[in-house]
Design goal:
This protein is mainly β. The protein is built from no helices and eleven strands.
């Protein structure tokens, strides 16, 4: 069964930190894994991706968010530091077995992150 399970969201004050986790079933844990987010009234946007040992991140989160993966656990993480109210969104894990991190094939159910000012 294809499955990505996101977790770790919550309510945090500005300047705080959260770590999101995404547990993947074997078939969905690909070489290309990423995180996207969608704020109310806005389109879903790219946050960060890891392609093997290489990472990419959006300019808005560079220096604050770090994506990593544990291949032994089929899990990808998003460490979020120095959070800002504008980071408030539902965060989605994504898997791109076809190799294009901008066009994922599988999605997690999403986890809510709320940053208060």
């Amino acid at each position: 069964q294809v499955q990505l399970v996101d977790s770790g969201g919550g309510l945090v004050q500005a300047g705080g930190s959260l770590r999101l986790s995404c547990a993947a079933s074997g078939r969905t844990f690909s070489n290309v894994m990423g995180w996207f987010r969608q704020a109310p009234g806005k389109e879903r946007e790219f946050v960060a991706a890891c392609i093997g040992g290489t990472t990419h991140s959006a300019d808005s989160v560079k220096g604050r968010f770090t994506i990593s993966r544990d291949n032994a656990k089929n899990t990808v993480y998003l460490q979020m530091n120095s959070l800002k109210p504008e980071d408030t969104a539902v965060y989605y894990c994504a898997s791109s077995p076809r190799g294009d991190y901008r066009r994922p094939d599988y999605w997690g159910q999403g986890t809510q992150v709320t940053v208060s000012s």
